[in-house]
Amino acid sequence: MGRKWNNIKDKKASKDANTSRIYAKFGVEIYVAAKQGEPDPEANQALKFVLERAKTYNVPKHIIDRAIDKAKGGSDENYSELRYEGFGPNGSMVIVDALTNNVNRTASDVRAAFGKNGGNMGVSGSVAYMFDATAVIGLEGKSADEVLEILMEADVDARDILEEEESVIIYAEPDQFHSVQEALKTAGITEFTVAEITMLAQNEITLPDDGQEKFEKMIDALEDLDDVQQVYHNVDLGE
């Protein structure tokens, strides 16, 4: 798969404003999910999914509670879910997902982050067709064979199960995310190193050193935007 999921997460957390920015972005995502449905994760699958992912980033309970309470309180703050697609150096492809209460601001900021770093925004659909939505769940303390047996006993399908350093990473269809987690939880596994639905590139590319440096600067600029929740790309950064 070309991705070391735990390393990517750790790198993002360590460079991201001492994690405070990650927590702020989760606060918005949790608020939006809670407001769109019931503020109870057992009755709101979208909220349950966000909380599972937040747990892998060690988002503090007070931030989670504050976002849910804000949704319960009937706040009239509204956010739009946006997806931008674009290109970076040497034919690299990028998808940017955002939550924003100011569409014009976000579009301008994303366009500038691309343009100032050797990239350019594309039209809707210009990049996404080269990516597959994929559930990614990671855990420790089990082998790939043991995890496969657990999923088979629960009659749950996975695309792939790989051992990456100290972890086992499960790749599955997005609609299997909760089924995979429930099967693992039934088997006594309750802690996950990764738990998210991502966009995986069908083919990754390797950039020359100068192109990779410019590309990483562009990705950092996009991820630093307050309205940007996720950035996906097709470049093997060698983590």
Q: Could you characterize what this model shows?
A:
The protein has 239 residues and is an alpha+beta fold. It has three domains: 5-72, Orthogonal Bundle (Arc Repressor Mutant, subunit A); 80-129 and 204-233, Alpha-Beta Plaits (2-Layer Sandwich), CATH 3.30.70; 130-201, YebC, transcriptional regulation domain (Alpha-Beta Plaits, 2-Layer Sandwich). Helix content is 42%, strand content 22%. It has eight helices and eight strands. A four-stranded antiparallel β-sheet has the order 3-1-2-8. A four-stranded antiparallel β-sheet has the order 5-6-4-7, sandwiched between helices. A hairpin with a 5-residue loop joins strand 1 (80-87) and strand 2. Helix 2 packs antiparallel against helix 3 (45-56) and helix 5 (103-115) runs antiparallel to helix 8. The model has no long low-confidence stretch (mean pLDDT 89).
Structure in a nutshell:
This protein is α+β, with helices and mostly antiparallel strands and 239 residues long. It has helices at 5-15, 20-36, 45-56, 61-72, 103-115, 144-153, 177-186, 209-223; strands spanning 80-87, 93-100, 120-121, 131-140, 160-164, 167-172, 194-201, 228-233. It contains eight helices and eight strands; from the N terminus they run ααααββαββαββαβαβ.
The coarse silhouette is globular
Mean pLDDT: 89
Strand content: 15-25%
Largest sheet: 4 strands, antiparallel
Q: Whole-number radius of gyration?
A: 18 Å
The SS-based structural class is alpha+beta
Please give the share of residues in helix: 40-55%
* CATH fold field value of the largest domain: Alpha-Beta Plaits
CATH class of the largest domain: Alpha Beta
Biggest sheet strand line-up: 3-1-2-8
* CATH architecture name of the largest domain: 2-Layer Sandwich
CATH superfamily of the largest domain: YebC, transcriptional regulation domain
The tally of structural domains comes to: 3
Give the number of DSSP strands. Answer: 8
What separation lies between the terminal Cα atoms? Answer: 12 Å
- How many helices does DSSP assign? 8
Q: Would you identify the regions where 5 or more consecutive residues have pLDDT less than 50?
A: none
Protein name: Probable transcriptional regulatory protein FSZ17_04385
Family: Belongs to the TACO1 family. YeeN subfamily.
Main location: cytoplasm
Subcellular location: Cytoplasm
